Each structure stands twice: as C-alpha cells, then as structure tokens.
Amino acid sequence: MKERLLYNWSIQRLFYVLMGLGIISGSIAEKEWMGALLGGYFLSMGVFAFGCAAPGGCNTGRYSSNARQRQVITDTEYEEIK
Predict the structure, then answer these.
(1) What is the pTM of this model?
(2) What span, in angstroms and rounded, lies between the C-alpha atoms of 22 and 2?
(3) DSSP-assigned letters across all residues of 28-78
(4) How far apart are alpha carbons 28 and 25 in whole angstroms?
(5) What is the CB neighbour count within 10 angstroms for residue 20?
(6) Confidence of residue 27 (pLDDT cuts 50, 70, 90)
(7) For the chain, what is the mean pLDDT?
(8) CA geometry: angle at 49 spanning 46 and 52, to 5°?
(9) Could you report the per-residue pLDDT of 38-72, keeping only the tens digit for each?
(10) Backbone CA torsion sign across 26, 30, 31, 34
(11) Nearest partner of 38 among 18, 28, 52, 24, judged by Cα
C-alpha cells in the first residue's frame, strides 16, 4: 500500500488529485455535499491509483504499450490441399 501511495505518479494521476480537490472545495463552498462525495471519489482515485488513474487503467487494449498484448507473427506455414 505504501508503494502505491508513494511511487508511479503520473500526470494523469496528479490531474485526478487536483480535479478531486477542486470539486471538493467548490462543493463545500456551495454547500453541495453530494458534489463533495464525487470530488472525494476523484481524489481517492488519484491518491490510491485505482480506476482510470492506475497505470494502464481505462486502456482499451488496442493501442496498449504492454508487451503481453503485442503479438508478432514470425513465420507462416502453408499446407497444399489437393
């Protein structure tokens, strides 16, 4: 848990933290407590790195940079059918 909080910070994760803080502060100023809960969700997503703020989160897989998802066809063998 400590590693999740301290390491692997990205710009996207920082964006979620700042967005959550902005939503929370605006909601508290307007006394809209449901908005503060929504801001808390975004803040926790950024701090604890889950959901789309996680490394590789919200990735469709089509354009992923993970080596496991890349498949390279090296050689194709054909068989003659008579």
Answers:
(1) 0.63
(2) 25
(3) HHHT-HHHHHHHHHHHHHHHHT-GGGSTTTT--STT---GGG---------
(4) 5
(5) 22
(6) very high
(7) 80
(8) 80
(9) 999 999 988 888 887 777 677 655 555 555 555 66
(10) negative
(11) 24
